[in-house]
## 1
Amino acid sequence: MKILAIETSCDETAIAVLEIKKTRAGEEFSILSDQVASQIKIHAPFGGVVPNLAKLEHIKNLPILLKRALKEARLPLGSRASKLDAVAVTYGPGLEPALWTGIEFAKKLARLWRVALIPVNHLEGHIYSALMQKSKFKIQNGGIYPMLTLIVSGGHTELVLTKKRLQYKILGETLDDAAGEAFDKVARMLKLPYPGGPEISKLAKFGNSRAINFPRPMIHSKDLNFSFSGLKTSVLYYLREHKKFSKRNIASSFEEAVVDVLVRKTVKAAEQYKPHTIALGGGVAANDQLREELVRKFPNILLPDKRFTGDNAAMIATAAYYRFTRSKNTKRSKNIKATGNLRLSKG
Ligand code: KG4
Ligand code: ZN
């Protein structure tokens, strides 16, 4: 079957078309098209994402990406000729004005093509991204579960246990800033361009990670929660107290502190829940230091291809496939509502 997926939860407009073939061992996914239009340049002057600007950009980008995606996947745009089996769309979490643009667009397409509409949780997409290696990838039946995933993005930092397919338990999460958000805020303090995560990690490679001993908030707490706002504040104090400072050393020491906490809590969760598989997902999964430290602790960890760490629609289509095959019931889909604070459910 073929699924077209739409992602507009934040500052990336994305449309992908995937073909899924069922085999005895599991499923084979082929990415026929994977279109992403980044709005970074539009939001950069504001130092962060402006929800209403994001909405206008999505409205402008969606028809352009749709044409490109259908052309690349060799599918017709016309109403009756559709060879697609379903349209999927992210309905949360994210910025509601941005989410609505994707939902409205998806509803129109599903009506035009007379196919099912599948609502997808954005975080479920990030969880599946760890299983996506290239343009063709296989997902085997069972076997990988229970799976522990560290999701680290601009809006989320969560340790999630997937007990069985589509059954999630949030083991721990951030009590304040997300890891990516902390990267972005510290980058702003250092007057680095938005988004700050990639900029900090580039600088950090040339710095000394032991130069400054930043705090590791909650690293010894008994639970599996995180907190990054205190760390961010101590970078601010450091900048106030030092007239001369090395941006490289700050970047490197800050990155080390974040990675230390993320890795320590993942190890703790792994010891406690003894998962079969450990995986990483989300925008911050592009961070090399984090990837290296996790691999050191868990040599078999599933890391998403860097192509799929940031927001994309291919991961939404993958998650949609399993939602679709479990319940063909699409009645609910007519009432899809953008849900900014949507959480992963027990299934
Ligand atoms: O998953 P994502 O694309 O969007 C959300 O769902 O939030 O994550 C974006 C976040 C941003 O905060 C960005 O600064 C961060 O991921 N990021 C990084 C790196 N690349 C992106 N953070 C640290 N190191 C990186 N290399
Ligand atoms: Zn995301």
Note: The CA atoms of residues 162 and 168 lie 5 Å apart.
## 2
Amino acid sequence: MERVLKERTFSGTQDPEVTERELKNRKIARKAAAQGIVLLKNENQVLPLKKGTAVSLYGTGASKTVKGGTGSGDVNERESISIYSGMKAAGYLISNEEWIKNYDIKYEKARNAWRDEILLKIEGKGEKAEDFFEVYSSIPFVMPAGSAVIKAESDTAIYILSRVAGENADRHAKSGDYFLSNEEQQMLADICQLYQTVIVAINTGGMVDLSFLEKFHNIKGLLQIVQPGMEGGNAFADVVSGDVTPSGKLADSWAFQYDDYPNAAKYSHNNGNVKTETYEEGIYVGYRYFDSFGIPVRYCFGFGLSYTTFDYSVTDIRVADEQVAEIKVIVKNTGEVKGKEVIQLYISCPNGKLEKEYRRLVAYQKTRELKPGESQELSLIIPIQQMTSYDEGEPGWILEEGIYRLWLGNSLAAAKLCGGIVLEQKLVLVKTENICLLEEKLKEFHQNKTICSEREQMDIIKLKEQKLPTVLMDISSLYTKVIIYHENKKITDPLAKEFTETLSNEELIHLAMGDPGKAQGGNLGAAGISVPGSAGETHQCAIEKGLASIVLADGPAGLRLMKYYNVKSNKIVSMPFQFSVEGGIFCPEADDLPGERYYQYCTAIPVGTLLAQTWDIELLEEVGQMIGEEMQYFGVTLWLAPGMNIHRNPLCGRNFEYYSEDPILTGTIAAAVTNGVQKVPGCGTTIKHFACNNQEDNRMESNSVLSERVLREIYLKGFEIAIQSSQPMSMMTSYNLVNGVHAANSYDLCTKAARNEWGFKGFIMTDWTTTEQDETCTAAGCMRAGNDLVMPGNFCDRDNLKKELLEGVLNVEDLKACIARLVHIIWQSNQYENAIPYQEKKI
Ligand code: BGC
């Protein structure tokens, strides 16, 4: 096939007016936000609130609603709708305009003071990206609380509690962060005293302490809006007014108190050790912990209220021959308004050789919008591998004999026993080799064996007493697999490999790194050359040979580009890097730049956690496709998203970018978003950060220490699911080490697990500047591991590759295999005329 390179034009438009694209995409962002908002409390049906009602809005998030997190997870949109604007536009009468006006003044003052403080520090240190992040995270912006509350002309007050967080720093279990500050407490106390009805909205990327609910009894409504993107205020009004019936469900368990989380005391900086993070809770992460150990939570995983009610019941359970079990469920809207429901299926696996968590999510589905009285039949599919556990002793995924109990509900707590699957014999479904072994033995949490087996027996008795359907799974009908491991250098596409034979060693080395770009000086999270604000691009050295250079831009809350840039004498005028890293905080004034202006306004969608709270695969595909279309428009090939690390602890500074504490929800959502993006010709996703990037403090050097079983069942599972059901074009390794080996240099992760075991066909890249931080992580080490591209690329990487090639420490065949995988994807990119959607076969 002849490949014709597209001619590059300057990205974006010279027309400053709002475009059709922006208008269309805002609607999708609004829909996604409204679908993801979770209604946690609705006493006396305080919600919905009639349009036209008078309300008072308080809290930092009233007029300064936080749309998303900071750092590379930020997005530079044209304009964001605050809750204040959204509610006003929907027709509510805002009774405390004066308070809001005052707040805006205070906010601007605090923000300017903060910016000046940062600029001063940066000037002292020189403009380097890592300095910037360091400075930025060491001076987090604390939003002011606002003036004292005076009762306004309304009975209802809405208090919006907001927080900002971002990469390179974890949050703290202290006042003003996880806990309310004294000022916030006081304000909430005053509001509760002055207003008859109080509604609270949580506008934070991660969890916060909710014990104020016990103190103030007139908080009748509680909404979890996370950070809802640029249309957050409109989406909020949609839910508050009842235009949209809430249907979001929590993607995490909300404990009563921080200390209830199993790793609370030792997480990140809490124990003074940010070097080694031991995952002692083992498989007991999130609800797997609370549910197995019987620890009560405030709001359970999968929980969310509606304005209507639903009935649901199982109509059929069967084991199909395509390695799946199928549960049919009929759902009926029994209430008085339209709405959607999320039906969740959990499974209890029998304890045997391996100890099991009490229940795990295995399938879920959201209904369409059902009118009152309307029903829908859903078919929930459990892939057999979601019933397996990992046996490190005889390495492989095993199904143990016994009765697998099924639980169906609209939350974990509401899930009721509904049937069982019987397995009469043990089966090794997939035989693997061990990976990422522990350097030393690790002491992990265990359940009490007697309690476990008593609980299992009770469930079985209940199954019988209630005459619930059980089906036999005939193991002879299941196909099993023994993984054959091919070496890194053998895993290539023959045509792309042939192409690499035409490249000189120098070209191979260039292609193994991003293009540092003369103008930018390299090393930045905004090192893109052709599309300003993009995170980087691949090397241009082989363009003459027909190999395009592709552009990579962040996510996950949309596409992160500069809002605008200038072109003078046919060249892009360079901008200070802060512009892009900081989402406009450092944005130069419009007149500061010479030349003609180009605009690149992108759509800020809700952050990852809120997207996960939709539990809506179809909608997330639509969101993904919308992002893909923006990529196409701006000339971006790879989106550096979805972020899919597990919410191991509420304080991780990047939780907002990630989906959930649960790997199945995480994996299926990442797959849906990828499937959407990759519907667009030549566009693809980059699932990240592979793997165990669960801490931001000291993120470049922290060592995640965990057992192989836990690694595979909890932290890799989502990646495995996403790869097998969506074949993302690429993947990004994380900064941290896993059991003593940098993820970027891990042969076990890149070659053994991703490629050989899961069949990943794309290419792998490092996170930005990974190889610069610690000399044990090298560019040549990446190539040996099967990590194909070092981003954004710098001269030390080049020297290291040259030296190791020359000395024969790096085998040129390994390097060629990496470049061949990169070429294989570049050839399918939107940088060529007539590109088609990426076609790699899904499993
Ligand atoms: C982040 C990545 C991001 C990259 C490029 C890094 O700091 O960890 O998630 O994609 O920068 O901006």
Note: Residues 518-526, 579-584 have pLDDT under 50 and may be disordered.
## 3
Amino acid sequence: MDKRLLVTGGAGFIGSHLVRRLVQQYPDYKIYNLDLLTYAGNLENLSDIEHFGNYHFIRADITDFIKVAEVFNNFGITDVIHLAAESHVDRSISDPTAFMKTNILGTMNLLLAAREAWKSDYSAHRFYHISTDEVYGSLGPEGAFTEHTAYDPRSPYSASKAGSDHMVRAFFHTYGLPVIVSNCSNNYGPNQFPEKLIPLIINNILHQRELPVYGQGLNVRDWLWVKDHVSAIDLLFHQAKPGQTYNIGGRCEKTNIELVGMLCDLMDQKLNRTPGSSRQLIRYVKDRPGHDLRYAIDSGKIENELGWKPSIGLEEGLVATIDWYLSHQDWLKNVTSGSYMDYYKKHYSK
Ligand code: NAD
Ligand code: TYD
């Protein structure tokens, strides 16, 4: 079928992997990548596919309703996969309003534009909203988030994502818009902006800088290789029924200190450094306010209904991630120049 698929946030970390997959696997679809190119968006992430005939980039802000509606009209958008967001918890603590605007108002604008553009017949369309496990709040030592876990967001980031999830589901129940929602655990892999834990630690080990670990390093995250998230998105976009929610996770829990230790050891090997030397750089720093203790996803629904599972484990994924950053040091240098260093100094000198 001739789809004209709008991917928002396609110049970011997960979005760029998704756009590449869709452009390469679905030559009959036209992929429109709408992105504002904030500090987190980078067209370098897509330089290998920008010449493909079925790819088109649009620089736009999802908080601008008129522009969003124009994009639906001008390009005859048939489907949406919505990833554009402010995505970093620490930034949401210093500037919550930006998260409310982009994540809630931006999502609302896309929903309104889709409702208007598709109103004659919703049945052939899909509005797929990409969300996070952080909307479910913080777990104790036991259990995992299912699709039925009550929402309990605790950071401005997760509260804004929860707000957007609720609005997406409201458009399903109220207007019949054919929506899908998925809530995924922490992703890692190539092209992730080095404000997030894994690329930040890789970059700092490379430059033999201190490795900031919040609190006691005992918070737990459930890690998923980004290309496995993207394979799940592809599957759900094509197979999930409207109104459905799916959790996606790696079944791969690690404390932050375990993870940072693994990165240190793997990088000592790669860089031929004395074993144990990078671990000397670990520094326990002031904890994040409201730091969620543990996230863990029960991904039984997507595994049992659709046969999805992660293709690789954490160690293999970390080795591939480290290899990518080591062979793309120009990319790292470009994204860590200028405003990144201002952010870094301000955040880590608190
Ligand atoms: P990212 O920060 O790397 O990328 C976000 C992209 O959105 C950037 O390209 C940015 O330029 C764009 N953007 C931001 N504001 C915009 C606006 N107003 N208009 C248009 N574009 C705008 O984020 P990511 O890590 O790739 O996450 C993508 C999505 O997946 C987000 O919705 C996030 O909540 C969700 N998610 C992320 C993770 C994770 O571990 N990274 C896990 C689960 C869900
Ligand atoms: P992050 O990558 O920001 O993802 P999220 O907060 O969305 O889970 O952080 C992952 C974990 O690592 C989280 O528990 C906070 C912790 N962390 C540190 O210990 N030090 C750091 O410098 C950063 C950025 C994160």
Note: The pocket of nicotinamide-adenine-dinucleotide (ligand 1) is lined by residues 8-9, 11-15, 35-38, 40-41, 61-63, 83-87, 102, 106, 130, 132, 161, 184, 186-187, 193 (CB under 6 Å).
